[in-house]
């Protein structure tokens, strides 16, 4: 019914009712649009501004609520009012309809949103469409962005005539930035116009290069007159096979020493070697020719015209960078010119080095005379390598000369790096210097002995010179195919107190004696016990017996008896037990000598006195057997039991447990009876 009321009624507040219609609770968008359109008509209001306001509100309903841009466009065409077009243009911009928005803003003659319009136009790449808008905007606004974007639009549409006319006229565009932008995007014709307008000849030359206008590029480079531009134009002409133009630019570039290498590299990469040599030969005639030109020409001769090298070195020696030319000669294997330059420059070290590295310049007597005079000791080591490689039969003579001047460890390392044959060649030399006990020398000789399977010499070397990595040698020999070398491995482990490794190696080779000797040397009860148990497990009875005998001092008797009992080795532990008993006996003898009692007469007097003090044999006193003497006692005693009260033995002279004072409790009497009790004596 709302629509019919809107048509029938006229006396209501249009704006309030329209707002109620578009509210979220009603969403009567069509009715709101009808209200605004109805009250925008002349019969409802004669105020033009109010009519336009109602039309803009009606457009707002279409674009903001109904989102019907096609209907909005139709409505805008009907009313054809600028504010309405502006409202539509903003809505179209929001919906990314840049082309339609541009037309709407043009119809509205509204440039207020020029920043957004330019951004959307660039994103949509609609440069032709944006040009009219930018022209319209420039009528009322003087902004850098407008002029810059207009130039860019002309460039993108290839409208070069209008572009040139515009940049030559008054504008506030940033020509340099837009020129760089066009150049980076490959719009070289437009860039050429822009850079020419601001006299940027360096960039202008690059534009000519990309447009293959090489003569114009050289002319622009001449106006720019900076080495970077000369170089770029030179390389471009060279790639286009414009050799004369390239040479013109190249002569300007090689005046600067820092850029000579770039010219050489580019010519060389393109394979124009003859033109490169010709360019530097022309450069010799420059007024400001520098040392780099003479040096680089010498280097080029070594690569491409070797027959001219010696003459060039002799004529222009004072203008050369000797080190660079020498390196070039060496790379080209032109050693005579290299030696000539070294000698002229008084570099004896370098001359010797050249002779040591290159056989064509070698003279043995001269070399040996010069080698001891060099200031750099490194050259001596290089000489060693040279003799090993080129003159191995003269190596011994060289080392006789250098014996007091070199580090022998380093020489040995050189021999090692050269190869096994070099170590063999230097064996006599290494034996001579082994007296210094150097690790490298010892290791090298040991390796030679291993290679030659000379285990006797190896054993002697290990015994005499032990300054080397013994564990590494032992590990290496542990898997050697020859038994004697594996035994040496076990021996080395033993020398380094690696008892378990040594014993394991000897076990694997069934070298039982080595196992036993190692275990004995270790003096470790656990190691020895493990070996004994191993012999029991492998039923090596004889070895078990030998281990007991050899390691006697470190084997506990209970361990030996236990293993013998468990494995039935009673006969095999008997030597150990005999030896143990003998040792125990000897120890007791020593103990008896230390604790020997007084002489026999003194002992009898002491015993008589002691027995007399006992006061009879009653009340638990010491009783003697009937008719028996005191066997084992000096002099004996009357036999039989003595009646009470007829005397006895005084025990005050005895200590604890009835032992004479001075004897330990439970100790041994001289006759060997325990507890201090003589034979035939009872309590």
Automatic annotation (TrEMBL):
Where does the record place its CHCR repeats? 1-101, 105-246, 251-396, 399-544
Q: Which GO terms describe its molecular function?
A: clathrin light chain binding
Keyword terms, alphabetized = Coated pit, Cytoplasmic vesicle, Membrane, Repeat
Q: Which PROSITE patterns match?
A: CHCR
Q: Which InterPro entries match?
A: ARM-type_fold, CHCR, Clathrin_H-chain/VPS_repeat, TPR-like_helical_dom_sf
Q: How does it sit in the membrane?
A: Peripheral membrane protein
Pfam families, per database record: Clathrin
Would you name any one GO CC term?
clathrin-coated pit
Q: Please give the biological process terms from Gene Ontology that the record holds.
A: intracellular protein transport; receptor-mediated endocytosis
Compartments (UniProt record): Cytoplasmic vesicle membrane; Membrane, Coated pit
Family designation: Belongs to the clathrin heavy chain family.
Q: PANTHER family given for it?
A: CLATHRIN HEAVY CHAIN, CLATHRIN HEAVY CHAIN RELATED
What is the official name of this protein in its record? Clathrin heavy chain
